[in-house]
Amino acid sequence: MTVGQKLLAFWNHPAGPKTIHFWAPTFKWGISIANIADLNRPADRISLPQQCAITATGVIWSRYSTQITPVNYNLLAVNAFMAVTGGYQLFRKIRSHQYV
């Protein structure tokens, strides 16, 4: 398969750039990037409800993205990343409360 054929297949894929199934998870990466930026924030300034929501969203939608047809790997990647970063932020928050 040539590069042009691969690009055309990607373009016409049911979860390709012509659909919301591509753009919604792509823009959701912004939340994950913001969560990475919050690693520099002191743990006492991290929002516990926000990080619970990010972690839960990541876990739930990661599972969902493997059950739909076709599997949306962009959705899986962003939500797995959200679950990991949210879980780490929760760990930081809980650990900071133990030492106070």
Automatic annotation (TrEMBL):
Q: Which domain of life is it from?
A: Eukaryota
* Membrane topology qualifier: Multi-pass membrane protein
> Which InterPro entries does UniProt cross-reference here?
MPC
Q: Which residues cross the membrane?
A: none
One Pfam family this chain carries? MPC
Q: Name a biological process GO annotation.
A: pyruvate import into mitochondria
Q: What is its main location?
A: mitochondrion
UniProt KW keywords: Membrane, Mitochondrion, Mitochondrion inner membrane, Transmembrane, Transmembrane helix, Transport
The reply on keyword Transmembrane helix is yes
Where does it localize?
Answer: Mitochondrion inner membrane
Query: What are the GO cellular component annotations?
Result: mitochondrial inner membrane
What is the annotated role of this protein in its UniProt record? Mediates the uptake of pyruvate into mitochondria.
Q: Which family does it belong to?
A: Belongs to the mitochondrial pyruvate carrier (MPC) (TC 2.A.105) family.
UniProt protein name: Mitochondrial pyruvate carrier
